[in-house]
Specification:
There is one protein chain. This protein has 161 residues and is mainly β. It has one domain (20-159). Helices cover 7% and strands 33% of the residues. The chain is built from 1 helix and 11 strands, in the order βββαββββββββ. The strands form 3 sheets. The protein has a 5-stranded mixed beta sheet with strand order 1-6-7-10-11, with no helix packed on it. Strand 6 and strand 7 (108-112) form a beta hairpin. The relative contact order is 0.27.
């Protein structure tokens, strides 16, 4: 007995994911965020109290850092994404706050940042830094936020509660 099967192949439609632009507002950037993360991390902040705690961490090493003004944010409509670069062994690392963009793609938010780093072979101060940036993002129908760099490399992500 001989059995044969035939399948009809229908051409696949190539789908392009729609990127919906989102507003992103840099709130604060610092060269030193203590205690320093070991590597890239992202944290979603959804309350004024959590924002106050994060800002205390970021500003604690500065003179007068404990008496900082908390930005006014409507946490029913927005949240804050804290992106930490992790420990760096020299000066010259940070973020370009004017080049941050964000968009939604399916159920994900993508935040693109431009990281600053010293040029190869540059003379830099030998000092431990741990740069971070706080970004205000609208709350939306996404459940994960991915952070990418200017070359589209994945840096970190966070799941939303």
């Amino acid at each position: 007995m001989m059995v044969s099967a035939a399948a009809c192949a229908t051409p696949r439609k190539t789908t392009t994911l729609t990127k919906i632009p989102m507003s992103v507002v840099p709130l604060l950037t610092s060269q030193v965020c203590l205690p320093a993360a070991k590597s890239w991390t992202a944290t979603w902040i959804s309350s004024r109290d959590s924002l106050r705690q994060m800002m205390s961490r970021i500003l604690s090493h500065r003179i007068g850092g404990t008496s900082h003004k908390i930005p006014s944010i409507d946490f029913t409509r927005h949240g804050v994404l804290a992106v930490e670069m992790g420990v760096q062994r020299t000066a010259g690392y940070g973020f370009d706050t004017k080049s941050v963009t964000a968009y939604m793609e399916c159920s994900s938010a993508v935040v693109k940042i431009v990281q600053c780093r010293p040029e190869s072979g540059a003379h830099t101060a030998q000092v431990m830094t741990s740069p971070c940036i706080l970004l205000r993002l609208p709350k939306n129908a996404y459940d994960i936020i991915r952070v990418m760099d200017q070359q589209h490399n994945f840096l970190t992500q966070t799941l939303l509660p």
